[in-house]
Amino acid sequence: MMLQQTDYVGADVVTRLAATLGVQVHGTLPALWHWLFFLDPIPTHQLRPDGHRLEGGLIPNDPGLPIRMWAGCRTAFFGDVAIGTKLRRESSILGNKERAGRSGKLRFVTARHAIFSDHSLVIDEEQDFVYRAAGASRAAAALAPPAPSGACLRTMTPDEILLFRFSALTFNAHRIHYDWKYATTVEGYPGLVVHGPLQAILLAHHLETACPGVSIRKFECRGLAPAFVGQTLQLEAWCDADEPVAWNLQTRDPSGAICMQARAILQ
User: How many domains does the chain have?
Assistant: First the structure.
């Protein structure tokens, strides 16, 4: 199945995310901000109780594994995308596999998105989604050693307003990000969950701030553990000693556990 969509990189949308994050944007789309576009305008009556699409669309449902999470991405950027550009996206499913995990049966789905400006490929991306059973326990987050000496560090505390605005900007109705009762009693989290894509965008911006004047040409990340509203989140970035254009990135919660790991290649 191939899904084709077109969208326009509107300055108004970019300005709203910039205001949400408290950053400045000039002329071109920052890395990963293409996630603001090609949104699926699902009517409310076609949503499941968790806020995901009831049926149809590119990403499939699994009735036996109803809890779905965004798990990571591998993204390549082949050029800057100017604000005001019209884009075309071609999407397909690359993989759909079931595995046994420490917390029970899991399903992993990988989608590919190729984004074009005119006839030129500007972004090529794979996104991973993981499904688990309702009520299944999650593996405990693993603690990690501190970031290397000299790493660029920033600490922030995501709040409900940040999650609300990001959900609105990405048309994300998954209730774990805004409905505390649902998140805690149905999906079993201790609080509201910080979006994986939001953490990735924060890490990319953290790197762009640490390395002004350069561009991210490849970015890959995977979620390891959930991060929660009201808890500090440390953004960490350091250059790979063996590959100067490569940077390691991660978010860390107050316990010292890594929530997201990422790696970026600069130009």
Answer: 1
